[in-house]
Structures are given as structure tokens and as C-alpha cells.
Amino acid sequence: MKLYKTFIFIFLACIFAGCEDEIKNANDYFSLEIKEGKKVFTPAESVSVTLNNKKNVEIRSTKFILDGTEIATGSIPLAQQRMGIHTIEAVVDVEGKEYSVYKDITIVAPTKPEIYGYTILETYPHDPKAYTQGLEFSNDTLYESTGQYKQSTLRKTDYTTGEVVQQMAIGDQYFGEGLTILDGKIFQLTWKSGNGFIYNKDSFKKTGTFVYGKSKEGWGMCNDGENIYKSDGTEKIWTLDKETLAEQKFIEVYTNKSKIDTINELEWVDNKIYANIYRKDAIAIVNPKSGAVEAVINLKGLKEKVTQTAELDVLNGIAYKGEPNILYVTGKNWDKLFKIEVVKN
Fold first, then answer.
1. Is 7 exposed, middle or buried (0-12, 13-18, 19+ CB in 10 A)?
2. pLDDT tens digits, residue range 252-274?
3. What is residue 132's three-state secondary structure?
4. Same domain assignment for residues 212 and 100
5. Distance between CA atoms of residues 193 and 239, nearest Å
6. How many domains does the chain have?
7. Alpha carbon of 281 to those of 83, 303, 330: distances in Å?
8. Residue 255: alpha-carbon gap to chain centroid
9. Tens of pLDDT along 277-328?
10. Which domain holds residue 93?
């Protein structure tokens, strides 16, 4: 009888005191609550977060963590945070054992992107067989990466005449994607092979390869002279180490309303990333530190100005020569390359 009463006493004590052995699922005991149930924020705001102790368990301490960094209080400023999804974690100490619960928030751009237009300044011939994936100038020479299995190439062109000066097939098993040029090297992506190639810029001799990390596909590339940026067909743009090509971090591309996914060909222009949006007649101007879309260049109507063929595909290809507000753009199987002036309406 005494043993039975002792068991009952321990059982009831655990219910009311919250024995650590009873906490098998932290979400049954705790939850993170955000003021007014808000889920979407801008960098100008702070997140007020509290811990809901559902069963009044005795807690020794609670700490809040944002993306792996401990926050001093339950009010989390967002001023220096990048766009996209972030995870808030509450770590609860009960009887010397820690339990974690989580809540995701989304940070969007602080302002609506400006909408720019364009004026065509010049029109040049472009190989209509080129399924353009990457486009970049080195001095006055235009380099291009083209796609499609058994047709993918790396090429050097005279952009004024459309003449292909130098060309190399990259292999039937590869689907060529974006490229960028840095320190005398050409870096070229492939689509689904999980790796890219490095070439000597002048000879096109292959000097190395690199593999992708967490990004599963290769889409677009550009560089700022120190870092290489890579899109993977999602809303993410990855920063790569220029020596090892290892993925270091990423930004997520967001307007003030939502994410912009299927980010494609990239170009570095005046400290911003210009990004083609796949299947859209538009170029997003992206803050490379935060991922905020600051402006969008509306290129509607440009595709109608090229020869309409069965092979004709989407706008893709942005090149910049350093001329203020001037871009060179084309598309997949377009027979024209356009020199345009970006008009800030």
C-alpha cells in the first residue's frame, strides 16, 4: 500500500511540476508567440516574441536565437537582416535540460520597386542558333555561353557584326548555363550536372572544374571583382569564393510583397545585381547584400522585335560595358542583340 501511494505521489508531482522525463515533445509544452500573430516584416521593424508556457512548467531560463545568433531580449531588430525566411528559436532550460521550439518569419523589401522602361539605341545581329544562357563583356569582346544538350558552347563574338570569333563545344552530356569572367578565367555553369568549368579566357583551354554545394542547379553567374554570384533557378543567389568556388552564403530575392523565384542570368552593374527573371520580360535590380528588389526594368515588347520562329524562346542575357544606364540584352534563339538605355520613369 505504501509503495502504491508513493507511486501516485511521484506521478502527480510530475504532472504539476513538469518532470523532465515527461517532456518528450517540446511543442506540447511551449510555443513561440509573435505579437499580433504577424508573419511578414520589413527591415525597419522589430519582432516582439514571447514564450508561451502551455503547461506552466517551472523554467530556469529562456534564450532567443535568430538564425543561430543569440538575441539579448525578446524584441528582435531586423535592420541588418537579409530578405527571406528566418528562423527564431527559443531555448528553454527545464531542470537543467534544454528544449527548443521554433517560429519562421519572412522579411520583405522595405519599399515597392521602381519600374523603369527602355529605349533601343542600337540593334546588332545575333546568332539565332544560340540558346543564350550567359552573356558578359571583357573589354570590347562579348563572351557567351549557350545551352541545350548536344548544342552547348562557349563562344567569343564580335557583338557589332554577330560573328562568332571563337567557339568550343562543352560536351554532349552537358547543358551550358551562365558564365562570368574574372582574373583571366572564364567560369561556366552547367544546368543539372552539379558542376561547372574553368577556362583560360584567351585560349578556352579548360583549367579546372568545380562542384555545387547546397544549390542543386546552375543558372546564372556574375562577379563584383572579388566575389562570384550564382543563381540556381530559385529565389536564391549564392556568393562563391573566387578561388575555390565554394558556396559561402546566399541572399533571397524579394520585393515588398513576395519572393521572386526562377532567377536566371546575372550581371553586375554599378554595385547591384541585375537578374533576368525566367519567362518574364523583365530584369530585377537586386541589392546584393539584402536581396531586396530595388527596381524592375520592364522590357515588354522587345521580344516582338526579333524574327519570330518556332525556336524563339525567352529573354535571357544581360551584358554591361560600363556605359551609364546602358545594357546589351538578347534572348534564347534571338537573331538580334539590343543596346538599350534604361529609362528611369
1. exposed
2. 999 999 999 999 999 999 999 99
3. strand
4. no
5. 19
6. 2
7. 23, 8, 11
8. 13
9. 999 999 999 999 999 999 999 999 999 999 999 998 999 999 999 999 999 9
10. 20-107
